[in-house]
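User: We ran a pulldown and think these components assemble together. Before we commit to crystallization trials, I'd like a predicted model of the whole complex to look at. Sequences follow.
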Amino acid sequence: MFTDLLGFYPQWYVPNFGSGYVVALIASTHVLFSHISVGASFLLAYLMTKAYRGNHEEIYDYVKKYLFTLLLTSYIIGSLTGPGIWFSTTVSNPRGISALIHNFVWAWAAEWVWFVTEVALVYILYYIFDKVDKKTVMHLSWVFAIVSWGTLLIIVGILAFMMSPGSEKWFVTGNIMDAFFNPNYFPQVGVRTSFTVALAALMGLAVATRIKETALRQDLVRTMSMAGIGGLIFAGMFMVWYLDTLPGRAKVTLDFAIPPAFKTVIFVSIAVLALIFALFYIWPKANRSTAFLIVLMVAVLGLTIFPQERIREWLRKPYIAGDFLYVNQVVARDVPGKNITNEIDTIDEKGFLKVHPFVPESVKTITPENMLEAGRAMAMISCASCHSLDEGGPRPLVLKMEGITRPDLIYQFIERRLSGDPHKGASPYMPKITGTDEEIKALSYYLAHLNYEYLVAKQRGVPLTEVQKEQLEAPIPQPELTQKEQPQAAR
Amino acid sequence: MPDVGTLLNTLRSPSGVDFYPVVIQVLMVLTWAVHMFFINLVIGSMFLTIYGYFQKDLRWRHLSQKLIKIAIISLSLGIVFGVAPLLFTQTIYDNLWYTANNLSASWVVTFVPVVIVAYYAAYFFYFRNKDRSPVWLGVFPIISLLLILLAGSIMHIFSYQELFPDKWIDWYTNGGTTMNTDGWHVYAFSIPRFLMFIFLSFFVTGIFLKGYAWFFGKRTDMDQDEVTWFGTVGHKVAIVSGGLLIADAILYNILQGTMMHPVIWGTIGFVAVVWALLIAWGNRKMSWTAPTLVILAGLSDLSIGIMREAIRMIELAQYNHTIYDYPLNMDIFGPIFFFGTLAVGIAIFTFVLYVLYKGGRVAGVYEASKVETANTAWRMAWYAVVMWLIVFWGTGVIVLSQLNNY
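Assistant: Here's a predicted model for the assembly, 897 residues in total across the polymer chains.
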């Protein structure tokens, strides 16, 4: 009986918060700091070259301070939240991260080489800044800039694949290069790189506020403003290309499901930033306040990169990675190139609770007595990676289902909305439901109870509507179990 | 209960691995050893920096100042080198790693915040640790050390829970009745195994201090009496902790039931030889003993790493499970990409380490750009980096140009 197991791991559930938000928190922090690091390394190389060529002792002092600030921020928080993403995805979506690791172990190992080099160099640059001649420091700063960018060049391949392999090619070949260099790769590198240049420009403007020599300061402000505007223009152009390479499903979600406010915020903040750069170019003296620039940088990161990352995640649904693995851990399609077969048929036949190694023995076979518990286990493994089972957290089911307490209605909803078939009304962002009919009934029964309890709790605060009251009075009918599934217990 | 061997195979990634598991295993053990070397330095230095900070003797205060700097740099390097074994273990031991982690999931996500706070506490102390700084400042390294030990315990939990695949389901389901989804459960902890890494930390840090005294032994701008004394302190620390380490390693392996295996003897034996050499060479001033011992300390980390891996393999063999039969979808491009990048990295480090070594041993500014060897190394490094970019993008363009065939 146990030969039918599939490779699911123990499930982790964070009440009222959601494991997905834990990942989002760590990942967003990392993304912000890592973009800063890359931008900062470009700026560093530029400043070192300028200082060395023009013999500007003044710049050296700032460069050293600036390196130290980097060391204390980006290289502590950034380099810890990087593996932090692995840690958090390991527990919120083990099969998702595993799929990526098994495709990209060598790409990640290559990125690691750059990462080691980058971190070693930032320390070395700082500690030997006054111990070796400046020409050598300048040389090192260029290596530093390129390896720092190198980490971006590599991780983007993995991120792009995560969104979608982009064509059938990888599914057939299973080759790492086909997964890595997918149509989404170059435009995404373009967007991110241009954006880091704009960020570097902001940091450069901050350094410029401290420079005393007037001509040098003016020169720096102008160059930085130009770089900033250039970065933004290129980012915009690459963005158009990027959107064009998205899979069809994602385009639908982008156009119809994502709140327009998200998109507006991104566009407006980029436009404002461009205006500020233009202003500084025309009137360099206006660039005076470091505090203003820091606030601006935080605002830009918060208002552009953060929503952009959230949208990216949204567009990926119902998959977690590579258009073949659902967020709820089920392998949804065959990948001949890797000898992967989809698990949907097996689960539909044997039952999700049965094939999951970490579902307790007590609910593997559904009976009228354990139906509620079995339903909860189903909700845990089928829905909880996207929906909270409590009132708080991501997309709480009790809010999404508007208090329906009739299992048959919920059953109908699931059978349509999660049928995987758009003609039956399946949603583009939810996976196809997997499991036996029994299990889906148990799930519906549990969800009806969940709603019921929610209504009872709510009743204490706000008065219920007539319909809701009626629902509370009627008992929750238990779905009938079909007999043919029963003998499995004896098998 | 399902058959444990079947369960282990089922929990493997359906993608398989794309290169010989043994290569990944070797890389994993090697990078782990480097990681552990730096983490040992962090833990040992933190302990000693705290001890030194509370001493009246100014030499101890100075040692405390040096050690906190060593601790923070080592922490950075330890983190950086920890990423690689983490990657490789997820590849060949995914079945163990993801399960052990998800059993105690909440601890997994506390790890990173804990280390971040530990880091800043250490930095704060580093900035203010002066000859006359107040006693209360000593709270910061203590907080930092406790957090680092907590982080170490968390990692210990995962690698230890990994060793009991026969118990996982019972643990998680409380014997088949429920699902422990909250992630705060800790199902297994071995104090002797955990302590082994602490003793190892003192051993490595002690020897490192001897190396420190040797490396800076020629610097005219440093107080040489003090530098020599640092070496003496390190020597004593290493001797005491080395003995404890060996005893504890034997104890742990007896409890684990792995003591009878020849690989285990070999690894413990190696550490014992290093310890014996340390005692035999005493505190002699011979120029080659200190650097040799530092290398041997690094190899002791490797030895413990091999022991750790051997224990895992012995435990898995009970269920007829081995990584060597991991389903293989051979794909040579991945390893080429990695080893190519590694070669470029080595070219860079050759230049950087040359400059560091030469620069570190002289007083004043080192004019590397006027030294022919340094210049050649620089040109090679730069050429390698530029070549990498060209090859990398060239590959991308070629791959993408063939997309339409599918």
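The radius of gyration of chain B is 24 Å. That may be worth checking against your pulldown data before setting up trials.

User: Thanks, that helps.
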